[in-house]
Automatic annotation (TrEMBL):
Cofactor (UniProt): [2Fe-2S] cluster
Protein name (database record): Rieske domain-containing protein
Residues annotated as domain Rieske: 3-99
Annotated family: Belongs to the bacterial ring-hydroxylating dioxygenase ferredoxin component family.
Alphabetical list of PANTHER family matching this protein: FERREDOXIN-RELATED (PTHR21496), RIESKE DOMAIN-CONTAINING PROTEIN (PTHR21496:SF0)
Annotated keywords: 2Fe-2S, Iron, Iron-sulfur, Metal-binding
Domain of life the protein comes from: Bacteria
GO molecular function: 2 iron, 2 sulfur cluster binding; metal ion binding
Classification lineage: Bacteria, Pseudomonadati, Pseudomonadota, Alphaproteobacteria, Hyphomicrobiales
Database matches in Pfam families: Rieske (PF00355)
Amino acid sequence: MTWIPVADLAEFEGRPVLAREAAGHALALYRVEGVVYATQARCTHAGALLTEGEVVEGYVECPAHYGLFEIATGRAQGGPVCRDLATYPVRVEGTRVWVEVG
Ligand code: FES
């Protein structure tokens, strides 16, 4: 597993989710009440990009069929989604955001 710098906190200005690529993994980075989380970028239902979804109160809604995931845990919340998202450890040093991928 390797820690990779993927973003600066300033990039979340006015945007709740960022699309990033790290070591071959497509990631969605979210900032929820000051805490940064990382999940796989693609929905587990049919692969739509969650980075184009709606982020509301700690959840991301898939833009394709409105599947809902809890951002902090990646847990699928029902509807068309039944498989959880992969999540990745995140750490923030100063304003730099690092994600551990392997
Ligand atoms: Fe996300 Fe269908 S692709 S709910």
